[in-house]
Amino acid sequence: MPARIVISADGKKAFESWRLAFASVAPQVSVCSWYDPAYTAGEDDYALVWSPRPDHMERLACMKGIVCTGAGVDHLLAHADFPRHVPLVRMGGEQTARLMADYVLWAVIGLLRDARTWAMQQQQGLWRNNVCSRTSNTTRVGIMGLGHLGAYVAQALAHVGFCVSGWKRTPAELDGVTVWSGVEALPDFLGELDVLINLLPATPATDGLIDTFCSAICLKVQVL
Q1: Which CATH number does the domain housing residue 70 bear?
Q2: pLDDT digit string (tens) for 111-120?
Q3: Long-range contacts of range 110-113, CB-CB < 8 Å, 24 or more positions apart?
């Protein structure tokens, strides 16, 4: 039996849109619905998933590979019986990086220009001149996690004029970005920031990392 992509992502009703998408860009690929009563698993099948139910784990264990439609897979690995012997692929291409960069840029500029206040006043019919004189070149943004997404976001922010710092566990160089590395460098990295963006994966190694060092920095500031 030829390899197939078995689609469970976004539920039963989303299958047709996925089928049309694959037919448009990869018509040679065979697809079927996870929810089709007539489906029987094949040894060369790949599952396309986002948030499978706990009762899906047994069938996932029979797949040749599992493809997640998002960049993050911690919600999958959180399942105690997730089949860790099956290769797991996450999305992380150019479009995903661009989407993340656009989102972060929107969020940082929104903070810089106090966009929330303007939006709330607009809803209330209040028209006040809220002076925001700070600019991107006087604002330092820090990116925790300089993998594929983090590096792209950091350079996108630098490109539009923000002062950008990045942190990762191992030394690296990135054009336009001041890179800090190692846990011992976290206090200095965090201490110089105006805005912090966390793009670290959710793992036991990163759990509580920001809280621990931000608390230490706040305590140091209070003492001084």
Answers
A1: 3.40.50.720
A2: 998 888 888 9
A3: 111/195, 112/136, 112/139
Of 168, 162, 176, the closest CA to residue 111 belongs to 162
Same domain, 213 and 184: yes
Instruction: Kindly report the number of other CB atoms within 10 A of residue 80's CB atom.
Output: 7
* 209 shares a domain with 100: yes
What is the average pLDDT score of the chain?
88
**Alpha helix (H) residue ranges in the chain:** 15-25, 57-60, 74-77, 94-112, 115-124, 148-159, 186-191, 209-223
What length does the chain have?
A: 224
**The pTM is what?**
0.71
Q: How confident is the model at residue 216 (pLDDT cuts 50, 70, 90)?
A: low
Under a CB-based contact definition with an 8 Å cutoff, are residues 147 and 199 in contact? yes
- For the chain, first and last CA: distance in Å? 70
Q: How far apart are CA 91 and CA 144, in angstroms?
A: 19
| Domain final residue pick, 64, 90, 116 | 90
Q: What are the tens digits of pLDDT across the range 123-134?
A: 999 888 877 778
Q: In this structure, what token pair is assigned to residue 210?
A: 């920001």
